[in-house]
Amino acid sequence: MTDLSLGRHAGGNTAPTAPAADINPHAVLGAEIIIEQLHKFYGSVKVLEDLDLHIQPGEFLAIVGRSGCGKSTLLRLIADLEKQSYGEIKFKSARHIREGISADDIRVMFQDPRLLPWRSIEQNVQLGLPKDAHGNASAMLEKVGLKEKAGLWPSQLSGGQRQRTALARALSHKPRILLLDEPLGALDALTRLDMQNLIEKLWTEQGFTAILVTHDVSEAVQLADRIILLDKGHIAQQFDVKLPRPRKKNIDFSELEQRVLNAVLAT
């Protein structure tokens, strides 16, 4: 997982939105994202085609689908790491309609934490922060349970601890939007569950808009307010996750998980 400072697009005809009651009630920070008629081509290969999507401020959205369906491409377009072929992506601040979303308001976390090996854990979390905001790094290290590890090198941490460091680095910037591209895919099962709980806890506290790309349907049901299934560059299905938080793997959880999994397998 890595965090990057990212840019913005401009752009509106939107897909159905998640019900307001299902959106994070503490969303005071998150940004609204409006995607209209989005196309992405690589030569003659169509990765995304005429895609419309409306993401509410503070919503936790999960994107699932088979490999090659366009999940990571969509995330990279939102992050401005790539440019769309056609269409528009617009951002709107939840704080004030006149307040825009800048590059510093968006952070991305990837599967690889990409920590600088010659810098301490605390110095890695401080990357990109002005000196007067270094306290944010210390506070986030405490929140992710790494306060006592601040002076260590990345090589001295476990894989899960390095992911916690990357999460602290992203959130120390207090982003309006956090994009997560398979950030937990390399972790063992127990560490992955711990990280899911930590991400959910910090999302609830901070209210940022979160978009998670994952192959793990159970993870999507565990974390998201809404799940979208991509297939051949289109939104094939959407699932509202109305399960109460904190979520337990009961019959309702298992039924929804199976519905989403069946939909993925049918693509």
Automatic annotation (TrEMBL):
Database matches in InterPro entries: AAA+_ATPase (IPR003593), ABC_transporter-like_ATP-bd (IPR003439), ABC_transporter_ATP-bind (IPR050166), P-loop_NTPase (IPR027417)
Family matches, as CDD domains: ABC_NrtD_SsuB_transporters
PROSITE patterns the UniProt entry points to: ABC_TRANSPORTER_2 (PS50893)
Annotated spans, Disordered: 1-21
Gene Ontology molecular function terms on file: ATP binding; ATP hydrolysis activity
Start and end residues of each ABC transporter domain: 33-257
Gene3D superfamilies documented for this protein: P-loop containing nucleotide triphosphate hydrolases
Feature: compositional bias, Low complexity: 11-21
Keywords, comma-separated and alphabetical: ATP-binding, Cell membrane, Membrane, Nucleotide-binding, Translocase, Transport
Family the entry assigns: Belongs to the ABC transporter superfamily.
The protein's name: Aliphatic sulfonates import ATP-binding protein SsuB
